[in-house]
Structures are given as structure tokens and as C-alpha cells.
Amino acid sequence: MSESGSLSLVATPIGNLEDMSMRAIRTLREADIIAAEDTRNSIKLLNHFEIKTEMTSYHEFNKIEKGQELVRLMQNGKNVALITDAGTPGISDPGEELVRMCITHGIKVTTIPGAAAFVNAAIISGLPCRRLAFEAFLPKDKKEHERVIKEMEQETRTIIMYEAPHHLKKTLKELLERLGDRNIALVRELTKLHEEVLRFRISEAISYYEEHDPRGEYAIVIEGRSKEDIEQEQRARWEEMSLEEHMEYYMQQGIDRKEAMKKVAKDRGVQKRDVYNALLK
Fold it and tell me: Is the pLDDT of residue 268 over 90?
């Protein structure tokens, strides 16, 4: 039996063709077949770099059937290169399904790194990048959409999401209503001649797009919720309780009275003796 082939996840430019790496070009030339999200779009890239490798379509609507076909090819020794329309395959696209299939069948998977729009949007935004949460496009399903938005309300990491121009205004209004008036950056045309980064409060962005038509796909980088906000909200919830109710909350958990006083004082941002004196009264 011949040795199995492999899957190469090849990142392609998100705008500027000069971002195509030499390794990516070589990998695409040497592959037995290229699986592309949209062959009509990818043929322009291949022609530009004079890559003659056979290409087949692999997208959201054929990912299972075509994925199985590609796995069989790799099991028979063929090397497959996977590309998306732009950027790194496997991020918010059906490539992740093919990766899982390969892992299940013991097929080698490797990556040829390059551009990823959400990473570049984050680093150019000016918002903190040590901890990131990537949400891609908000789900269309109502229940899933609500679940994601609810998680975003409490997210302390910087959030990056994508949005289409015809949905941008509606999404900004929803973000303001659900997340509050946070700092955001709206990034479009990354790496291209007319690259644009607009840094606003969400309310300012809404006003801006009342007078300017959104154009192109957007990466929206959103400030995470501050720990101070979360602590203040939690403190407000504790303060809705009486001191006696607050103490009872902890003592019902088997915590002794002295330790419960410490916790109540910490929750309310006061000294332990203040809790003790108030309870005496």
C-alpha cells in the first residue's frame, strides 16, 4: 500500500498579493490538487503566480461529500493543498471539517502560515491584544444569536467579529443596546490601497454611518468589558440584599459566621467591622 499523502492549509493574501509567501507558492505548485472555496476567485490568484495545479471546489455546501473524496485521494498518496477565498483556511470556513476528517484517518496536516484578517484587525485597532475572543459572523439562528450576544455582554477579552456592509448599521445598534457604549475599531480593505481603520465609541460609529454608506466586509474590534464594571454590577446586586440575607447566603453553604462576614465585607467593598457593627444594630 502506498504511503498516505497530506493536507496543507495554505494561507493566501487578504488583499495585497505581495503578502503571498514563497513557501505558499511552492506548496501550491507541488500539490497534486488544490481544494478551493471558490475556484472562480482562486483562479485569479493561481494565474497571477503561474500555478498550474489542478483545482477542485470545496465549500460549505459540499464539505462532507467532497471532504470524503479528498480523504480518499490522500489515503492513496496524493497531497492536497487547501485554500480559502482570502486568508487562512480553517478559520470561520469549512476547512476545519476537512482537518477533523484527516486527523480521524491518520492523515498528516500541516500549515503554511500567512494572513488572517481577524489577527491583523486586532493588532491595528489600538485595543488590548493580550487576550482575544474571535466571534466571526454572528449566527443567523435566533437562539444561537442570542446565546452569543449574551456571552459577549460579559466578555472581558477584546472581541473581533466580521460583518457585511448591508448588516453593519443594524449590528452596531444591537451592540450598543446589549454591550453598552464601548470603544471599537471598524477595519476594512486590510492590506489594500484604501485600507481604513475607524476608531470610535459605538454610538459615534452609528452616527457616522448615518451619513456614510458602509462599503466592503468589516472586521469589528470591540473593547472587552472592564473588571471594574463587572465588580460594580456584582456589588450592586449584593447591595439589593439586606446584610442579613447576604450573611445567610454564605452561612447556608456551611461557612462560619466570622468567615461569612469577611466575604460580605469584600462583596460590598466595606470593612469587616462595618458589617459587624451594622449587624449588631
Answer: no
What are the two backbone dihedrals, phi and then psi, of residue 91, each rounded to the nearest 5 degrees? -100, 110
Is 89 domain-assigned? yes
Residue 279 predicted with pLDDT over 80: no
Phi-psi region of 87 (alpha: psi -120 to 50; beta: other; left: phi over 0): left
DSSP 88-113: -TTSSSTHHHHHHHHHHTT-EEEEE-
Angle at 110 between CA 104 and CA 118, to 5 degrees: 105
Of 64, 94, 115, the position where a domain reaches its end is 115
**CA angle at 166 for the pair 164 and 172, rounded to the nearest 5°:** 75
Residue type present at position 82: L
- How many whole angstroms separate alpha carbon 39 and alpha carbon 83? 10
pLDDT computed for residue 2 by the predictor = 56
Q: What pTM was estimated for this model as a whole? A: 0.81
Residue 1 lies in a domain: no
Q: What digits encode the pLDDT tens for the residues 180-232? A: 999 999 999 999 999 999 999 999 999 999 999 999 999 999 999 988 777 77
Sequence-separated (6 or more) residues with CB below 8 Å from residue 92: 134, 136, 137, 162
